[in-house]
Amino acid sequence: MNLLIDFGNTRLKWASAEADGFALRGTFAHADLPLAHALREQWQALAQPSRVLVASVVDTAREAVLTQVVRERFGLAAQFLRSPANALGVRNAYGEPARLGIDRFLAMASAHARHPRVQVLVSVGTALTIDGLLADGEHAGGLIVPGPALMRRAVTAGTARVDAEHGCYRDWPNSTADAVVSGALQAAAGAVERLRCALARRVELEPALVVSGGGADELLPLLDQAERAHDLVLHGLALWARQMPPA
Question: Residue 63 in 3-state DSSP?
Fold first, then answer.
């Protein structure tokens, strides 16, 4: 059994992976919690894994806490993955491959394994990431912009008398709160659609659009013919566990 961990900016997701799928799994928002205590509670009934694979985008201090708990609980060193140049059917577009976020690489690997095609992958979290992927697994490149929630916080924190509380999406907002919420969502959707159009021009066909992440549901209504995906990073970690040899 492998313990797989998707350590995002807002949430930590984990799963114990057997050959036939996930046996146990959990998720929690970690920003305002004592991380070590939360991990010990989450894993108190978990069997001994053979490996602990981590896809992390957080700071080194929180990674160090995770490393300590994994060592105490399982007697293992957590393996923090970095994006390779070419693996799991995906060819990394970055000149320095390891600088591509491992969450983005694993999401592409998972989506490509499920359905090799021209597609745009969108992850809606603290950051909004948008990546183009060709049918042969070539990464076309991508964008990183603030996610809608982060955009809203930036506007309300940086301006006077602007409040997004209780705002909702409207095509034609008629209150400040609705204008902030709607503007953030429209900005995010615009970035997605511009990259999708650019990829369509490059390959001369319409790419599929796959949307994941904790903020996906509020953005989906603004995107035409988008598919909702769940846990792409965890599924990418499971692919890595099966196909990549131990470090």
Answer: helix
Return d(Cα 66, Cα 36) in angstroms, integer. 7
> How large is the angle between the packed helices 102-114 and 232-243, nearest 10 degrees?
80
Give pLDDT tens digits for 62-81.
Answer: 999 999 999 999 999 999 99
Distances (CA, A) of 183 to 128, 147, 169, 170, 189: 15, 12, 8, 9, 10
**In this predicted model, what pLDDT tens digit does every residue of 7-41 receive, in sequence order?**
999 999 999 988 768 888 999 999 888 999 999 99
pTM exceeding 0.90 = yes
Q: What is the CATH number of the domain that holds 207?
A: 3.30.420.40
Clarify whether residues 62 and 148 are in a common domain: no
**Residue 96 included in any domain:** no
Active-site entry in 103, 131, 163, 224:
103
- 141-157 burial code (b ≥16 CB/10 A, e <16): ebbebbbbbbbbbebbe
Q: Which domain holds residue 169?
A: 115-231
What is the residue whose two structure tokens read 């359905």?
115
Q: Are residues 135 and 73 in the same domain?
A: no
Sheet with 2-7: list strands edge to edge: 21-29, 11-18, 2-7, 51-56, 79-80
Q: Is 103 a catalytic residue?
A: yes
DSSP state of 220: G
139 and 189 in a single domain? The answer is yes
